[in-house]
Design brief:
three-stranded mixed beta sheet; 4 helices; 3 strands
């Protein structure tokens, strides 16, 4: 009663279970859950929300390029939270918000959202040559 041993397959079989028999691991959180968004992505969303809020009042901001950078490029005595650069030949006006300095100065998402909005309002005011209170009447009240 010899039963022939089937030959070993040359290609590995697809794994349906891990070595403990529980199944393959899936993602930690589904993509629609905020946990799966990185800190940089959630910060970018805060800046975008602030910009959209201001664009309703100031339509000329659609030509301004808003950037989120990790840290400022130059070494200065005090670390800036943002910077504005006026338009030049061939390049639009730019407003840069620095993510790491803002994150260091805030404890939670609500504080971060307020500080990001203040930085964006201040930089827009600087770019337009206006007072921050005229750009956003609620500036400094929150």
């Amino acid at each position: 009663m010899d039963s022939p041993v089937p030959p070993r397959p040359t290609e590995p079989r697809p794994r349906r279970r891990d070595r403990h028999g529980r199944g393959m691991r899936g993602p930690v959180a589904p993509p629609q859950v905020p946990l799966s968004a990185s800190r940089a992505e959630s910060f970018r969303d805060l800046v975008q929300d602030s910009v959209e809020r201001l664009e309703r009042r100031w339509p000329q901001l659609t030509e301004v390029e808003f950037l989120v950078l990790d840290v400022p490029g130059s070494v200065e005595e005090s670390v800036p939270l943002g910077r504005s650069v006026p338009a030049e030949k061939g390049s639009p006006a730019r407003i840069m918000v620095y993510r790491r300095p803002v994150e260091i100065r805030t404890k939670n998402r609500d504080e971060r959202a307020l500080l990001v909005h203040e930085v964006v309002v201040e930089q827009v005011a600087d770019l337009l040559g206006l007072a921050p209170e005229s750009v956003d009447p609620r500036y400094g009240q929150d």
